[in-house]
Design goal:
It is an enzyme of class 3 (hydrolase). Belongs to the pectinacetylesterase family. Its EC number is 3.1.1.-. This is Pectin acetylesterase. This protein is of the alpha/beta class. The chain has 2 domains: 68 residues, no CATH class; 371 residues, Rossmann fold (3-Layer(aba) Sandwich), CATH 3.40.50. Helix content is 31%, strand content 12%. The strands form 2 sheets. The chain has a 10-stranded mixed beta sheet, sandwiched between helices. Helix 1 runs antiparallel to helix 13 and helix 13 runs antiparallel to helix 14. It is globular, with a radius of gyration of 22 Å. It starts with a helix and ends in an 11-residue tail after the last helix.
Length: 459
């Protein structure tokens, strides 16, 4: 076994043991069994689900509803492939998941939202919760019911106290980030008129751009998603009344008409968009972009030029937002995808910054109207705080939310040795930093007395 693999396994084992010791706050799954009778079901007909960590103290009437990402399925074949995994069936979902970043319940890692009611809505419809086809094919038995899932989840949460919300956010990452855009005003309409309600889209600003061959591959792909799921009737009418429904899957064509305040967190070199919009496999059959898409450090000068051109187009698509304080943005120059639900990019000592401000600070300041935030980073590679992702080859294909296999040197450049006051905080920091760095942190904590492994500890 190679040294890197040994190190990876050691990291995994250490963190698994430490998380057991810390009794980490995993959040159990809730299945909406009563939604089945309403036809609000996953692709395979199983009930929708979410994870709910209740608020406390000053956050008891504050609600954060985050929608999971996971790409889309654009035809019967790709939707069928999801029936056997968590993106199409709640039967395949983990019974509990950990919350981090904006979902964390620890004040030091999430100071402004830690004690809110925090809900993670699982994604199993493949349409960013827009589909609604009554007929079920007797052969495939596929259910295209994403919009019904959205309605059923909202109804359930309102009954559980969200109807009394004083503050509320709808958010999500990737396809979930698009969900928060498409359903932003709909979410606002469900809540009390006097409540502060806003929307947050993380890596959900997908743009209608040409690929490296000059074709609009992503436009065709979204058109197929809309047609397969019958999404047109559930897309914002402010867009479909003006444009073809296939274009209304792109935030650039509807964001200016969203009346609810909304904040966009996005990388100008969004790794999913580079891999699937600028250089999708169909536009690069010989794989010239393969290495570049996995690690931006491998890109040739010509490829970087094309990526700079993509950034220019991305920023042009953002101009529809204008300078309104209602529409905030944190657009960094990292090669990344999804940054609000990962602790390392949400709030940590070396998290990405714009104007000396982390994503967590920017979002909170904007939400609580402490200040506006409308920042766009300088071009790559100007920002030394970036966490540029390095992906494994298995992550290089259409329609899948990629998973980080590592980060740039920026993430390991410095360690946070600030005093942490409880065991769970130390454990989380160990696993966030990973490997040797994490073990160094743990050792330091033990030496300084900041963490104490009691008699029940296996260490």
């Amino acid at each position: 076994m190679e040294g890197g693999n040994i190190r990876q396994w050691l990291n995994f084992l250490v963190c698994a043991l430490l998380l057991l010791i810390a009794e980490a706050s995993y959040v159990p799954i809730t299945y909406l069994q009563n939604a089945v009778a309403k036809g609000a079901v996953c692709l395979d007909g199983s009930p929708p689900a979410y994870h709910f960590d209740r608020g406390s103290g000053t956050g008891i009437n504050n609600w954060l509803v985050a929608f999971e990402g996971g790409g889309w399925c654009n035809n019967v074949t790709t939707c069928l492939s999801r029936k056997t995994n968590r993106l199409g069936s709640s039967k395949q979902m983990a019974k509990q998941i950990a919350f981090s970043g904006i979902m964390s319940n620890r004040q030091m890692f999430n100071p402004d939202f830690y004690n809110w009611n925090r809900i993670k809505v699982r994604y199993c419809d493949g349409s960013s919760f827009t589909g609604d086809v009554e007929e079920v094919n007797p052969v495939t038995k596929l259910h295209f019911r994403g919009a019904r899932i959205f309605a059923a989840v909202m109804e359930d949460l309102l009954a559980k106290g969200m109807k009394n919300a004083r503050n509320a956010i709808i958010s999500g990452c990737s396809a979930g980030g698009l969900t928060s855009v498409l359903h932003c005003d709909r979410f606002r309409a469900l809540l009390p008129r006097g409540a502060r309600v806003k929307c947050l889209s993380d890596a959900g600003y997908f743009i209608n751009a040409r690929d490296v061959t000059g074709a609009y591959h992503i436009q065709q792909y979204f058109s197929q998603v809309v047609a397969t799921h019958g999404s047109a009737r559930n897309l914002p009418q402010s867009c479909t009344s003006r444009l073809s429904p296939k274009l209304c899957f792109f935030p650039q064509y509807l964001a200016s008409h969203i009346t609810t305040p909304i904040f966009f967190v996005n990388a100008a070199y969004d790794s999913w968009q580079i891999k699937n919009i600028l250089a999708p496999g169909v536009a690069d059959p010989e794989g010239h972009w393969h290495s570049c898409k996995l690690d931006i450090n491998n890109c040739s000068p010509d490829q970087l030029d094309l990526m700079q051109g993509f950034r220019t187009e991305f920023l042009r698509a953002l101009t529809v937002l204008g300078n309104s304080s209602y529409k905030g943005m944190f657009i960094d120059s990292c090669y990344a995808h999804c940054q609000t639900e990962m602790q390392e990019t949400w709030l940590r000592s070396d998290s990405p910054e714009l104007e000396k401000t982390t994503i967590a600070q920017a979002v909170a300041d904007w939400f609580y109207e402490r200040r506006t935030f409308h920042q766009i980073d300088c071009p790559y590679p100007c920002n030394p705080t970036c966490h540029n992702r390095v992906f494994g080859p298995e992550d290089d294909h259409q329609g899948k939310n990629v998973t980080s296999k590592g980060t740039s040197d920026a993430s390991a450049r410095k360690l946070n040795f600030s005093k942490l006051t409880n065991k769970a905080q130390w454990i989380e920091l160990v696993c966030i930093n990973g490997g040797i760095n994490g073990l160094l942190l743990l050792t330091l904590g033990l030496m300084r007395g900041d963490i104490y492994m009691g008699p029940s500890s296996i260490l």
